[in-house]
Amino acid sequence: MTQISSEPAHNAATLNDEVTLALRAITEKRAATIGYLLDESRQRHIADDSVREAIRRYGRDIGHQLRAQMRDRKDLQEFSGLFTRGLESQVYEMEPVSASRDEFIVLFPLLSLCQLLAAAGARRQRN
Question: Please, which domain of life does this record's source organism belong to (predicted)?
Fold first, then answer.
């Protein structure tokens, strides 16, 4: 497992194979769309809580899909194995920190959605 560092290398991509780059580009487009939705809501003084709830709902749906594949639906260690496998873990360059039956911590050093949402928040502060 990766040790938590006080200086994470956020948004410093290290994987650059063709498939990972293609999937990352698609993810970044989706993240940009969500960021634009939030920006446009703010510019029109429309509450963005519906967009944020949609993001949370999307995450919950993914969690429920993963739990449906598990033998023990309360075992975080089993969940962590499903969550951090496959191409998505490469796209975000996930770094598992801790995985046990009681705790699961994973870092997302390359998470375009968070980067774009943070940029949207910075734009909001300037406006």
Answer: Bacteria
